[in-house]
Amino acid sequence: MRLHDIQQTYGTQVQVAWRAFPLLPEHRPGRRSTQHTRDSRQCAGAEEERAQFVLPELATALPASSIPALTAAKCAERQGAAAFATFHQGLFVAHFHANLDISDSDILWRLAQQSGLDMARFQHDYTSGESYQAVLHDYAEAVAWFGVSALPTVIFNEKVSLVGAVPVAQYRLLLDWILAGEPGGLIPLDFSAPATGTAGRSAVG
C-alpha cells in the first residue's frame, strides 16, 4: 500500500518492479498457525492499518512453501502489469484476510480465474518451469547482491534499501533526493540499521 501511494504521487517519475523473495523456499508440509503467528500478524496490522489483516485461528493450515504462490505471480506478470496487479492483490487478500493456504494449487488456480487471467496460458507458463526459474533468479540476486533475508525491503536505484514498514514520508524524502540528482552525496535518512529484506524495487526514471 505504501508503494501504491508512491506511484500515485510520483506517476511516471517512478517505476516499481516487484521481485520474488521466498521466505520459505523449501517444502514444509503440515505447518499450522500458532500464537506466534497471530502475534506477528497483529504486529504487522498495527504498522499498516489499511491492510486489514485477519488473525488466523490457532492450528489453521499455513502455506507449506512460498514457491507456488510466487511462481503463480510470475505467470500472472507474463500477462501484463494489470493482470499481475490484480493477481498480486488477490494473493494478499487470500493469505492475510481469508487465511487460505496459498501454496495449494487449487486455491492458486481459483485466484487466477477470479483475476481474469488467460487460464490456458497460465497453466502453460506454470508447468513450463520458466516462471519457477524466474523466482529462483530473483531469490539468488537478492541474496548475492543485497544480502536480503527478510521482508519487506524496497531497493532504490539498485543501491539503497529501506527495510520494514517504513513511513511513506521516508520513501518520499529519499525519492526527492534521488530525483534532485542526489545533492550533497549524503543519503537523507538514518541508515544505522542494516538492510536485510526485499519486497519491491523502485527504479527512478
Written overview of the protein:
- The protein has helices at 2-10, 35-47, 67-77, 81-97, 105-114, 119-128, 130-146, 168-179, and strands at residues 14-18, 153-156, 160-163, 200-204.
- The protein is α+β, with helices and mostly antiparallel strands.
- The chain has a 4-stranded mixed sheet with strand order 1-4-2-3, covered by helices on one side.
- Strand 2 and strand 3 (160-163) form a beta hairpin.
- The longest helix is centred in the middle third of the chain and has 17 residues, at 81-97.
- The protein is globular and about 50 Å long.
- 25% of the residues are buried.
Provide tags for this entry.
205 residues; alpha+beta; four-stranded mixed sheet; 8 helices; 4 strands; 9% strand; disordered C terminus
Q: What is the count of helical runs?
A: 8
Q: Beta-strand level of the residues, as a percent range?
A: 5-15%
Counted beta strands: 4
Separation of termini?
A: 21 Å
Low-confidence stretches: 191-205
Order of helices and strands: HEHHHHHHEEHE
Largest sheet, described in full?
Answer: 4 strands, mixed
Q: What is the helical fraction, as a range of percent? A: 40-55%
Write the layout of secondary structure elements.
Blueprint: H1 2-10, E1 14-18, H2 35-47, H3 67-77, H4 81-97, H5 105-114, H6 119-128, H7 130-146, E2 153-156, E3 160-163, H8 168-179, E4 200-204
Parallel strand pairs: 2-4
Antiparallel strand pairs: 1-4, 2-3
